[in-house]
């Protein structure tokens, strides 16, 4: 039997709908900082600006030239930190090559109260405490959880395998599952016998960036499969999961595109609303 398709487009549209009223009352403002012209960034940013517009949220795109020096970017971050009208901002990654070694320094400079990407040590560290402290979680893991919640897929007590242990996706996603009482296995490039871990998963999440990594043989019949990988190929965007084969084994599966991508952007919008809410409380 073919798996249920978990549409991120549909779930994101519901999440954005819920945010619209809050945006009207709170009037938050998002700023997206871009340095250079990475083609993937261009398309992500377009989506972020479009979603902002759809929910009536003020959004500004601050685009610095590719050759900008670190001091210029740091000055802009300082300006955004101290501008009370800016509720949240992100620095779109990757940065151009000459700045890429400075990413930790750039992220450290962002005021955690405005860190709507949830990338700062403060916001990541808070997640470690419990679900209640996930105030500004990174958008992609938050999008995965929101998608499962939208489709009423239970998490407590489930065996969850997360493939990928990046700071932006795999590690925080594993933490969010643990916060919801799942039994979590985190796999990565050095994992021995990956299939032995994927095959026991009730919920399998994959965030590696290797098209076709997960084959039907690696999936437990009836599992929920969440494909977070996105790779641009000559045949278009590809996830990490062999979708056509795995959908015949899984009970539910996310497509690429149209799965986690839209959820990520919607979660960023939600973080910006939450940031403004908290700023008004302070
Ligand atoms: N590059 C790819 N995804 C992201 C994201 O979620 N945030 C930022 N800042 N850069 C990205």
Please tag this protein with its features:
282 residues; alpha/beta; Rossmann fold
The CATH class assignment of the largest domain is Alpha Beta
CATH fold naming of the largest domain: Rossmann fold
The percentage of residues in β strands lies in: 15-25%
Q: Mean of the pLDDT scores? A: 97
Poorly predicted segments: none
The tally of domains stands at: 2
How far is the N terminus from the C terminus? Answer: 52 Å
Return the string of H and E elements.
Answer: EHEHEHEHHHHEHEHEEEEHEH
CATH superfamily of the largest domain: NAD(P)-binding Rossmann-like Domain
Account of the 3D structure:
The chain is α/β, with parallel strands linked by helices and 282 residues long. The chain folds into two domains: 26-111, 3-Layer(aba) Sandwich (Rossmann fold), CATH 3.40.50.10860; 138-261, NAD(P)-binding Rossmann-like Domain (Rossmann fold). Helices cover 42% and strands 16% of the residues. The protein contains eleven helices and eleven strands. The strands form three sheets. The chain has a six-stranded parallel β-sheet. A three-stranded parallel β-sheet has the order 3-2-4, covered by helices on one side. Helix 1 (8-26) packs parallel to helix 11 (260-281) and helix 7 (139-150) packs across helix 11 (260-281). The longest helix is centred in the C-terminal third of the chain and has 22 residues, at 260-281. The radius of gyration is 19 Å and the shape is globular. Residues 44, 90-93, 117, 139 line the site of guanine.
